[in-house]
């Protein structure tokens, strides 16, 4: 009887099977730690709590990689290496798609199922994700008041304090365009980087000029559109978050003390790169 008829695939002679003392898949990925990091707190343990934990843990892993790439993009912009910056941003865009799709898995948790273990979560809430806040900070949605949430977590507090004090990715972007020869106004170059980024109308003539003369300003034009993609993806993630929460708990308050869906809905009004959206009204006029 042949291998096909047995429905078996033969182990090739060259495949390493004696793994004693070798680097392995499990040891490289530290799978003992990773797969042992799920600790349901419900009593008796509820079947669906594992889904809830893993969905959030994998989100945090993707956020870790997002921060890694955005930090690299920011450094590249400071060094005027726009190609590397855009490569990092392109990777982040793919990560964002994975993060957004992940809400569909969590949305399989019905209100009845979640209610059976939600009370065991205490005050734990996604609002307390320091990596999510760090992504917001590095993109320009800075809020110094958020630091108080992390006063009991020194490493998280230090990361957010550093990102609060540093120029955002968008700040570095305008500085790069200034060094490349574009007429970036001083108000964009000298702003208080600790403040949340808000629409700077001084920039609109420049942004409009780039859009209306794309071939002469292709690097800036392409970068504008990459940043627009980045913000749209982030807003889609926020929207799916809000809708998943609405689907699961309705309008109940959040476990961390927020108003829940209403609080998440207001996040949709926040923006990272306002000039790149405001210019759409101006182009062609």
Short description:
By secondary structure, the protein is an all-alpha fold. Helices cover 58% and strands 0% of the residues.
Provide an overview of this structure.
The protein is mostly helical and 285 residues long. It is built from 14 helices and no strands. It has helices at residues 3-6, 25-28, 31-35, 49-78, 82-106, 111-115, 130-139, 154-165, 169-179, 186-189, 204-212, 218-249, 261-266, 274-282. The longest helix has 32 residues, at 218-249. The radius of gyration is 23 Å and the shape is globular. The model has no long low-confidence stretch (mean pLDDT 96).
| Beta strands, count | 0
The outline comes out as: globular
Number of helices: 14
Strand percentage lies at under 5%
CA gyration radius, whole angstroms: 23 Å
Terminus-to-terminus distance: 76 Å
Could you list the spans in which at least 5 consecutive residues all have pLDDT below 50?
A: none
**Helix/strand order, N-terminal first:** HHHHHHHHHHHHHH
Report the biggest beta sheet as strand number plus sense, adding barrel if it closes.
Answer: none
Share of helical residues: 55-70%
The class by helix and strand makeup works out as: mainly alpha
What's the overall average pLDDT, rounded? 96
């Amino acid at each position: 009887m042949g291998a096909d008829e047995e429905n078996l695939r033969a182990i090739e002679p060259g495949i390493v099977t004696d793994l004693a003392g070798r680097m392995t898949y499990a040891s490289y990925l530290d799978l003992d730690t990773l797969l042992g990091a799920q600790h349901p707190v419900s009593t008796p343990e509820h079947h669906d709590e594992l889904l809830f934990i893993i969905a959030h843990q994998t989100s945090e892993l993707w956020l870790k990689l997002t921060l890694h790439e955005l930090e690299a993009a920011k450094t590249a912009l400071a060094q005027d290496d726009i190609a590397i910056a855009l490569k990092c941003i392109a990777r982040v865009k793919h990560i964002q798609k994975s993060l957004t799709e992940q809400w569909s898995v969590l949305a399989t948790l019905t209100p009845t199922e979640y209610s059976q273990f939600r009370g065991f979560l205490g005050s734990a809430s996604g609002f307390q994700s320091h990596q999510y806040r760090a992504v917001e900070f590095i993109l320009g949605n800075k809020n110094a008041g958020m630091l108080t949430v992390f006063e009991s977590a020194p490493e998280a507090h230090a990361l957010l304090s550093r990102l609060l004090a540093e120029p955002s990715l968008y700040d570095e972007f305008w500085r790069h365009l200034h060094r490349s020869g574009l007429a970036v106004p001083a108000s964009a170059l000298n702003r208080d980087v600790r403040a949340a980024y808000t629409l700077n109308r001084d920039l609109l003539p420049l942004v409009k000029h780039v859009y209306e003369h794309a071939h002469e300003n292709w690097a800036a034009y392409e970068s504008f559109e990459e940043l627009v993609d980045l913000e749209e993806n982030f807003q889609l993630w926020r929207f799916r978050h809000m809708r998943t929460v609405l689907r699961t708990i309705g309008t109940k308050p959040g476990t961390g003390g927020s108003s829940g869906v209403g609080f998440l809905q207001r996040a949709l009004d926040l923006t990272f790169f306002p000039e790149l959206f405001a210019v759409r009204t101006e182009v062609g006029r």
